[in-house]
Write a structure and sequence with these properties.
This protein is α/β, with parallel strands linked by helices and 314 residues long. Helix content is 39%, strand content 16%. Helix 5 links the parallel strand 9 and strand 10.
Length: 314
């Protein structure tokens, strides 16, 4: 980061409004933005708690939003969305997953348009799930179309809602996020749970790829999306090193000093327990990081072992 970023942003009083600011990424990103000198506020469904972040109320399902949240806002970072891995994908849950992302973006766009607010950029979360739940030899890039399965559909509609801002002349960035490496409240923390019993376990064939990114690199991509006006469109937020699930678990076991059981949890058992959601765990392909690197971004953690050591041992 430039040494004078903090003072420059404080002088300009650039403001960032985050939806989903209390989630995993939102918490880290809020801290990173504050450290970089931005004014940060949140849009939340919950009751505001005393703290250093100003919280405004909204309820996308009811079409309600405190318009004061948008006064003086330079950037919106849209992270809000129901947790894909929290519950079994029933028909009702699928609708909730989509609406929590799409309807909320549409409400923001409607409010900004009607209020005549001039944003510098709208930055939306997305996911590498846009390429679908499959394992193939293909390395997916940003120009590839959304897959036809549920994850592809969710991400496709999510990004289409973000494009409403682009169509209104607002610079729009869509961050297609891989598995985020963070040890307390993440997919990684779930993989680590069996270690409490003295071992780690693999799932499925082990040949499925696991695109990943360190939480600090992800936050820095969002910062770059704010600060570089040349950043526009979709970008894969995924580290350059491409590893299989088998490789991932071997490295994780090495760092945690836990053996990885040779016999994996079979796919049919995960399907029985999780239903369609099991495809997220049992499949995965390689995803390219070339576009974000070619934009000038430099990963601090480009190798998995180094990234995991930082997350788990620091």
């Amino acid at each position: 980061m430039p040494a004078n970023r903090n003072s420059i942003n404080s002088q300009k009083k650039l403001s960032v409004l985050i939806t989903g600011g209390t989630g995993l990424i939102g918490k880290y990103l809020t801290s990173a933005l504050l450290e970089a000198g931005y004014n940060v506020s949140h849009l939340s469904r919950g009751v505001a708690k005393p703290g250093y972040i100003r919280v405004y109320r909204w309820d996308p399902e009811k079409g309600l939003i405190d318009r004061a949240a948008l006064d003086g806002t330079d950037y919106i970072i849209h992270l809000a969305g129901a947790n894909i891995g929290e519950k079994r994908w029933t028909s009702e849950r699928k609708i909730e997953i989509i609406r929590s992302r799409v309807d909320s973006a549409k409400l923001l766009h409607k409010t900004i348009t009607e209020s005549g607010i001039s944003l510098k950029a709208f930055i939306s979360a997305s996911a590498t799930g846009i390429y679908g739940a499959e394992t193939s030899a293909k390395v997916f890039v940003e120009n590839d179309p959304p897959a036809q399965d549920f994850l592809g559909s969710v991400c496709g509609q999510w990004e289409a809602a973000a494009d409403l801002f682009q169509n209104s002349g607002i610079r729009t960035v869509k961050i297609r996020t891989a598995i985020v490496l963070e040890k307390n409240d993440s997919a990684l923390s779930k993989l680590m749970k069996p270690a409490n019993f003295g071992f780690l376990v693999k799932t499925g064939s082990g040949f499925q790829y696991m695109p990943w990114i360190h939480i600090s690199d992800l936050c820095n991509i969002y910062l770059k999306a704010i600060e570089n006006s040349g950043i526009n469109g979709s970008f894969n937020a995924v580290a350059p090193q491409q590893v299989t699930h088998d490789d991932f678990m071997k490295i994780l076991g090495k760092i945690m000093k836990r053996p990885v059981l040779r016999v994996p949890v079979p796919g049919f058992l995960l399907k029985l327990i999780l239903g369609e959601m099991s495809e997220v765990i049992l499949t995965g392909s390689r995803v390219s990081s070339d576009k974000i690197i070619n934009s000038g971004f430099r990963f601090r953690y480009s190798m998995l072992e180094e990234a995991l050591r930082d997350v788990l041992l620091q």
